[in-house]
Amino acid sequence: MSTVGRSHERGVETLSLDSPGTRNALSATLVDALSAALADCAKDDDVRAVVLTHTGNTFCAGADLRDPPGPSSLVALLRQVVELPKPVVARVTGHVRAGGLGLLGACDIAIVSAGATFAFTEVRIGVAPAVISLPLLPRADPRALGRYYLTGERFGPAEAVRAGLATDTGDDADAVLAPVLDGLRRSAPEGLAATKRLLTARVLETFDRDADDLTALSARLFASAPAREGMTAFLERRDAAWVV
Q: 117-119 and 95-97: which strand pairing?
């Protein structure tokens, strides 16, 4: 069964993360499926823009701890979103955690509903938001990232917009999304591609400079004893040993 749904309407290809049983966690299978769908969109002249959305009440719960993608695979996926020669618009009507925020940050525009919630939960399982920092650090408010990276606190859509993690919010995400898609449909494909290159240049510089180091850091942390305890505690639904 596919983990990524696809539909097309008037130049907009909608890709839906469709693994609700795992809260759309980034498994190796889902990462491969999403990467393949994005590659198809990149070479399809009928695709003017991509909407990335989800089924169920969670956009993405972060890495699938039972079937995690390798750090290099996640880096490649995030870079693919950033480099895609067509705008990628996130449509979020549910929860976003950890690696899901990296996926959100890689998108060019992010529309989130009033019911969405967000959290960088990596520190609570003994790791760090390493790889996902590649698209986030150049785009988001550093003071906000400092707080939410370090505490793992949950926050809402208005704060996500203020922090630069999302573009806009409203009770009806589709109503907020409609003028965005109208604008993209009215824009020349060549103009969109050139403008996206302007907007993503600094993000790609971060990938070029830091991807190897952050991939190594992620791999080292996930293989550590604290991470093993943190992930075990998460799967067993108990506090980790360090909680006081």
A: parallel
pLDDT digits (tens, 9 = 90+) for 33-69: 999 999 999 999 999 999 999 999 999 999 998 888 8
pLDDT given for residue 66 in this prediction: 85
Proportion of the chain in helix, strand, coil states, percent, rounded to 5: 50, 20, 30
| Domain 4-173, CATH number (from 3.30.980.10, 3.90.226.10, 3.40.718.10, 2.60.40.1840) | 3.90.226.10
**List of the chain residues with pLDDT < 50:** none
**At residue 84, what is the residue type?**
L
Q: How many Cβ atoms from other residues are within 10 Å of residue 227's Cβ?
A: 18
Domain ranges across the chain: 4-173
pTM over the 0.85 mark: yes
Give the list of residues 6+ apart from residue 24 with CB closer than 8 angstroms, or none: 17, 18, 30, 54, 55, 56, 58, 59, 60, 61, 100
Return all residues near 238 (Cβ < 8 A) that are at least 6 apart: none
The number of helix segments (H) and strand segments (E) in the chain equals: 9, 9
- Of 59, 83, 46, which is closest to residue 203 (Cα–Cα)? 83
